[in-house]
Amino acid sequence: MARPARKELDEETIPVPRTVRFPVELVPPEGFDPVRFETWPRVAGRLEWVGGRLLYMPPCARLQRVTVADLVTTLGTWGRRHPEFEIGTNEAGMMLAGAVRAADAAVWRRTELGTDSGLARVPPVLAAEVAGRDESETELREKARWYLDAGVAVVWCLCPEKREVLVITRAGESRHRERERLPPHAQLPELAPLVDDLFAQVAAHGG
C-alpha cells in the first residue's frame, strides 16, 4: 500500500531468518482504519489489508524494482496515446470486495474514477504484479484470482527471473516469453507490448 513519505518509522526493523515466508501478518495499531491512510503503520515495506489481516511485504529487491520500472514505462508510453485511461503505480491502492490491495501497476478508465483522490473504489481494467524474491507463481495466481473476482478484466503476472508474463482473464490464461507480444484485450486498445520491453533492464543486468 503506497503511503506518503515519513521521516521516521513506527517500529524498529528487526532481522528475520531467510526462511520466513512473506507476507507476514502485523497487528493493526490502535485506531487503525483501512480507508484512512493516516492510521496505517509506518514501516519500510509494503502493506495490504486482506481478509481482516494486515499483511506486510519487504521492500523490492533489484529484479523486481527494475521490472516495475520497465512495466510502468511501457504503460506510460501507451497511456500518452490513450488519455481516456489513468495509470497508477507505486503500490496503486484500491479498496474492493472489503479489502485494500495494492498493484505494482494498474490501468483504470478515467471517467470511472471521478475526482476522488483517495483509494480507488472501482476495479481497474488491468492489474499488473511483478514477482518478488519471495513470491511463488502460486501466490501470484491467488492474487490474480482475487483481482478477477473483484471485477478486474485482465491481470499480468510478470516473473523477472524467467522473463515470462502470465496473462490471466476470466476466459483463461496464456504464458508469454521473450520475442513474443502479450495478447491485446478488447478493453485496452493497442496495448500489446513485447515481453522484451517489460524485461529490458533485467536482460541488461544479465538477470
| CATH-defined superfamily of one domain | tt1808, chain A
Radius of gyration: 17 Å
Shape: globular
| Count of DSSP strands | 9
Helix content: 10-25%
Keywords:
207 residues; alpha+beta; tt1808, chain A; 5 helices; 9 strands; globular
Q: Could you explain how this protein is built, in words?
A:
- The chain has helices at 62-81, 110-113, 137-149, 195-198, 200-204, and strands at 24-26, 46-50, 53-57, 85-96, 99-109, 126-130, 154-159, 164-169, 172-176.
- The chain is α+β, with helices and mostly antiparallel strands.
- It has a domain at 62-204: tt1808, chain A.
- The strands form 2 sheets. It has a 6-stranded mixed beta sheet. It has a 3-stranded antiparallel beta sheet with strand order 1-3-2, with no helix packed on it.
- It is globular and about 50 Å long.
- Mean pLDDT is 89; it is low at 1-7.
Please write out the topology.
Elements (H helix, E strand, L loop, with lengths): L23 E3 L19 E5 L2 E5 L4 H20 L3 E12 L2 E11 H4 L12 E5 L6 H13 L4 E6 L4 E6 L2 E5 L18 H4 L1 H5 L3
Parallel strand pairs: 6-7
Antiparallel strand pairs: 1-3, 2-3, 4-5, 5-6, 7-8, 8-9
